[in-house]
Amino acid sequence: MRLHVGCAMWNLKSWQGRFLPPTIPQNERLRAYADWCNAVEGNTTFYATPARHTVESWAQQTDDDFRFVVKLPKTITHERRLTDIEGELRSFLYAMEPLGHRAQLWVQLPGSFSPADTGALPDFLRKLPGSQRTAVEVRHRGFFDDPGSAARLREALAETGAEWVTFDTTAIFASPPTTDAEREAWEKKPRMPRLAVALTDRPIVRYIGRGDAVEAAEGWRFWLDTVEGWLVEGRSPTVFIHTPDNTESLGLARRFHEELRTRLPALEELPDTTRNEPLTLF
């Protein structure tokens, strides 16, 4: 029984000297992060496809069961909207090859990608390697407010074995912001209904919590129940924990895993953090 947990990045200045060593060479930062979590969001790939040797370094710094959920470049998803992308897609897939089965491709679509555009998805997803795990994130309210549109999206994803990424911002919008980081999140994060979806054996949850660690943990109770159910069903979920400034997210991701292990003792443990762990996390 395995649960993957992680954050939106593998290095943050506020983590160093607290969760991670105070100084870390650039080529060792992912390895240090992997002592805490067993998954990470690959958000940097949205802005530019990295060199293949860079991705080879990522593979060398992580164990075989580490999970990368890597975002397709914005030129493919946002600028060309899944059409005329063969060259860019080929370059991206070549760069990601060193990750092998550890990579799950993440197709994050813009808010302007509406239910009327759903028909473009199966054709695009068929261009991806059949052996490659894929997940799609949509942000248009029509997919959440209209059951028919949601059903058509599910069908489109099922045709190619793709997952529907759940992006939960309900906790951050549950009460007015109290910090600058929360105010910025209110301005930039989409207000999306919470929807728990598991179309494959690898569902993905992106949870956005409050800046305070206690409040962030209180807000994920729904996901503790949901992910527990998925694990009991034999699925292997990935849960990413965000906070507005992500200062607490690394410790919180591990805490989420520990709370589920209390419920499910058979859940595989995360790596030992004894050498890096501070006296108290919260």
Automatic annotation (TrEMBL):
<dbReference type="InterPro" id="IPR002763">
    <property type="entry name" value="DUF72"/>
</dbReference>
<protein>
    <submittedName>
        <fullName>Uncharacterized protein YecE (DUF72 family)</fullName>
    </submittedName>
</protein>
<dbReference type="InterPro" id="IPR036520">
    <property type="entry name" value="UPF0759_sf"/>
</dbReference>
<dbReference type="Pfam" id="PF01904">
    <property type="entry name" value="DUF72"/>
</dbReference>
